[in-house]
Structure formats: structure tokens, C-alpha cells
Design brief:
Distance between the termini: 35 Å
Number of domains: 2
Mean pLDDT: 98
Low-confidence stretches: none
CATH class of the largest domain: Alpha Beta
Strand order of the largest sheet: 7-6-5-4-3-2-1-8
CATH architecture of the largest domain: Alpha-Beta Barrel
Order of helices and strands: EHHHEHEHEHEHEHHEHEHHEEEEEEEE
Bound molecules: 2-acetamido-2-deoxy-alpha-D-galactopyranose
Largest sheet: 8 strands, parallel
Number of helices: 12
CATH topology of the largest domain: TIM Barrel
Number of strands: 16
Radius of gyration: 21 Å
Helix content: 25-40%
């Protein structure tokens, strides 16, 4: 969507994968969906070095709304959990230098059963969000059908534009239509949305993560060309820092998300995140790759039984290359490759090669020099290559 926003993939935090629809503030006050939780995460984003690195959005997901619209037909927050109102919450988030995102659903109800945005409330809701100071809207797709979606997503895009407030627009539309043409029109999505969920929801496991990676690899010829500045494929949130991924598996997610030019939306508890996960997510070279200004989504360029090689071209003739081992065979898999085999041939003088996630300088390589490494089971090696030319 050519609204000047999200020229690089958005970075920030969303509650859904980690906090779900926890509304029990009585028994679980620190973890229920409430202004208290959002403020706490805003404090962490601003205070613990995240914002400085680019993690600037703090978004609501489902379960913020009251069960009924107000007397004027506007969405309103649950009064117990958001006693100060959404405008005050957005102001708080902005006072930290962050941006604020909200969630609605194009349908009669949200996925968790709260009031949705119907075709005849689109204009009202867009106006309400703009008045509240919202910077991003995710519009989900439960409880509606294909024709409502076909009418409603373009209509919301236009309504947001009409508010005059820059509001990034995240569309769940393709995920509800199977993610592929002819049911999904990616050319249209690129015109009306800044990002879109192609596929089902991530869960806190390696199986879920790997399944998503495979979907992006298997359908890359369709989805890779449509991504670019202002329009991104969204494979869902970063789940590292939670319960399901090992250290090596956590590195797989960030490496692949960086190569895929995917949004870096964390969904973990920033108050208790481990130093290990924090160090992975705060790796400056990783973020540099994810945020590359060319905005070209990477592709899987080779696949054998357990190894996959993914490559993303970056500005100034640089590249990122991820080698993933999806096997569970106990020993790290030794690999030998060359720049020539990777198709990185432009600079005959050679390239400096770094391993991003372990922060290693591996040396300078010419086109046929063997590059040797080992890839742990369900693990990854992420190379950054900088030409000497
Ligand atoms: O509703 C859907 O399942 C969403 N999925 C998920 O991300 C979350 O927002 C949830 C809340 O009830 C998609 O947007 C595809």
C-alpha cells in the first residue's frame, strides 16, 4: 500500500501468541489483556533497548473491546481492563516514542467473540481509530464470508486513508482464503494493505514454525514477487522467548524471518524474557538484514532431505544466506559451499563472510574458496556477505 508507511517490515510487540485472550484480571492481573499489560510492554520496549533497535510498535490484538458498542455505535474498550480508554493508552505509548496498533475483525464478531467491524461500521471504526491516535490496524477475518471480505478490505483501506491519519494496514484476508491464487489476489493486496497474513496462526512449537517455513518455501514463486517496500508477507509473530523453541530453533525463526523480509513482531513476555532470547532478538546485524532498504524477500535456493539454503539480496551487493538443518540427527551437519555455488558471483575480488547469530567473522572468500560450517539439528547458520568490490 503506497501510503508512505512500512517501507521496511514493521518491528514491535503484539500480545496474541503469548497472552491470548486472557481476560482474568482478577486472578492474573499482570498477564490479562489490559492497559496495564500494554503499558508494561511499552515501558520495556522503550527502557530495555528495543526501541533504539527499531522495535517501535506496541499493538493490541483481540479481546480489548467491550461486549457492546457505545450509544453512538462506536467500538469501546472493556471498561474494567481499559479504564483510562484507548486514547489515553495511545497517548502513553506515544509518550515513550513508540507507535500504537489496534485490532479489529471484518465480520460480525472477532475470532474470540467480541464485536466485529461490519461493512456498515467500517467508516465509523476507521474514524474512531484515527481519533484515538492509532498508528496501525490489523483487520482479522473471522465470522464473515468471501464476498464480505472482497468488499470490506478495500473499503477499510480507503476509509483509513480518508481519516488523514497515517495508519498502517495489516490484512488477514489471504489467510482465510487459503493463501493462494486464484482465490487470493496479491496484486490487489499490495495496493490496499501494508502487510498481510498468508497462512494459519503460529503456535509455540518447532512443528508449527517449520510448517510455516515450508509453506513460504513451497509457494515462494507466487508470494515472493509481491513483497516490497510498503507491502509485506507476514508469516506471523516471533515466538522465541516463550516455551516451545530451543536456542537453536529460536535462531532458525529470526534467521528465516530476516531472509523473508518478514515483520519482526515479538509476542513474548518482555518482563521475563531470557538473556539468551533477548540477545538473539537484539542482534544489530540480524536487524540490519531484516530492515534492508531494497526490500526484496529472500528465496529458498536449494533443498535436500534435511538442508535448506535461503538467500536474500541486500543493498550494495551484499547478501544474507541462511542454511537450515531441519533434521533431528544428533550431530551438527557439516557443510561445504562456495560463493559460486550460492550464485554470488558479482564481485570477483571476493566477499567478507560473517556468521550473524554467533557474531563471527569467518574470513574473506573468493568465488571458489570452500566455506565450511556445521549446522546443528533443527538449527541454522546465517551468513552475511559483504563484497570487497
Ligand atoms: O484471531 C485469528 O486467529 C488471527 N489470525 C490471530 O492472529 C489472532 O489475531 C486471533 C485473535 O482471536 C489471523 O489473523 C490470520
Amino acid at each position: 500500500l503506497d501510503n508512505g508507511l512500512l517501507k521496511t517490515p514493521p518491528m514491535g510487540w503484539v500480545p496474541w501468541e503469548r497472552f491470548r485472550c486472557n481476560t482474568d484480571c482478577k486472578n492474573d492481573p499482570d498477564n490479562c489483556i489490559s492497559e496495564h499489560l500494554i503499558k508494561a510492554m511499552a515501558d520495556r520496549l522503550a527502557g530495555d533497548g528495543w526501541l533504539r533497535l527499531g522495535y517501535k510498535y506496541v499493538n493490541l490484538d483481540d479481546c480489548w473491546a467491550a461486549n457492546k458498542r457505545d450509544a453512538q455505535g462506536r467500538l469501546q474498550p472493556n471498561p474494567e481492563r481499559f479504564p483510562s480508554g484507548i486514547k489515553a493508552l495511545a497517548d502513553y505509548v506515544h509518550s515513550k516514542g513508540l507507535k500504537f496498533g489496534i485490532y479489529s475483525d471484518l465480520g460480525s464478531k472477532t475470532c474470540s467473540g467480541y464485536p466485529g467491524t461490519t461493512l456498515d461500521t467500517i467508516e465509523t471504526d476507521a474514524k474512531t481509530f484515527a481519533e484515538w491516535g492509532v498508528d496501525m490496524l490489523k483487520l482479522d477475518g473471522c465470522f464473515s464470508n468471501s464476498s464480505i471480505k472482497a468488499a470490506g478490505y478495500p473499503k477499510m483501506s480507503a476509509a483509513l486513508n480518508k481519516t488523514g491519519r497515517p495508519i498502517a494496514f495489516s490484512c488477514s484476508w489471504p489467510a482465510y482464503e487459503g493463501g493462494l491464487p486464484p482465490k487470493v489476489n496479491y496484486t490487489l493486496l499490495g495496493k490496499i494493505c501494508n502487510l498481510w497474513r498468508n497462512f494459519g496462526d503460529i503456535e509455540d512449537s518447532w512443528d508449527s514454525l517449520f510448517h510455516i517455513i515450508e509453506w513460504y518455501g513451497n509457494h515462494q514463486d507466487i508470494i515472493q514477487p509481491v513483497a516490497g517496500p510498503g507491502r509485506w508477507n507476514d508469516p506471523d509473530t516471533l515466538i522465541l522467548g516463550n516455551f516451545g523453541l530451543s536456542y537453536e530453533q529460536s535462531k532458525v525463526q529470526v534467521a528465516l524471518w530476516a531472509v523473508l523480509a518478514a515483520p519482526f513482531f515479538m509476542s513474548c513476555n518482555l518482563r521475563t524474557i531470557s538473556t539468551e532470547a533477548k540477545n538473539i532478538l537484539q542482534n544489530p546485524l540480524l536487524i540490519y538484514i531484516n530492515q534492508d532498504n531494497l526490500g526484496i524477500q529472500g528465496k529458498r535456493i536449494a533443498k535436500s532431505q534435511h538442508l535448506e539454503v535461503w538467500k536474500r539480496p541486500l543493498v550494495n551487493g551484499q547478501f544474507a544466506v541462511a542454511v537450515m538443518n531441519n533434521g533431528t540427527d544428533g550431530a551438527p551437519k557439516p557443510i561445504v559451499t562456495t560463493l559460486g555455488l550460492l550464485g554470488i558471483l558479482d564481485c570477483k575480488a571476493g566477499y567478507k563472510v560473517y556468521e550473524v547469530l554467533e557474531k563471527l567473522f569467518m574470513g574473506t572468500y573468493k568465488l571458489n574458496d570452500p566455506i565450511r560450517t556445521k549446522v546443528p539439528p533443527t538449527g541454522v547458520v546465517l551468513f552475511f556477505l559483504r563484497p570487497l568490490c
